[in-house]
User: Fold this.
Amino acid sequence: MACFITPLVLGVIVEALRRLASGVGRKLRMDIWSTMLLGGSLVLAVEHVWHGEVVPWPPFLTAMENPADIPVMFHEMLYVGGSMSAAVTAAWLGILAYTRSKLTAQRTPVKQLTGAVDLRGAG
Assistant:
């Protein structure tokens, strides 16, 4: 019904934070996180429109036409949308950890390089 709203709101918040704190946003690669959240929300919104759960006239969500369905909609937003947002966030953290580990593994400390060659001469 409305599970795409939760990652959409989180994506908009992440994008706003990324633009406000550009140094931290660039260091943490928040652009990847916001793209994953907003792209997933777009795909889910298209899927909901395809199945007739979102319509182009008010109240836009078919779950809001019947007041008895509104608590069910909020439950879905909280649990389904929240778990999707948590999964996307965990995937982003995994990507971040993997790229950080690859970057630190490629650096060779200077001590290792200078310790392998004796520059004083032998003899």
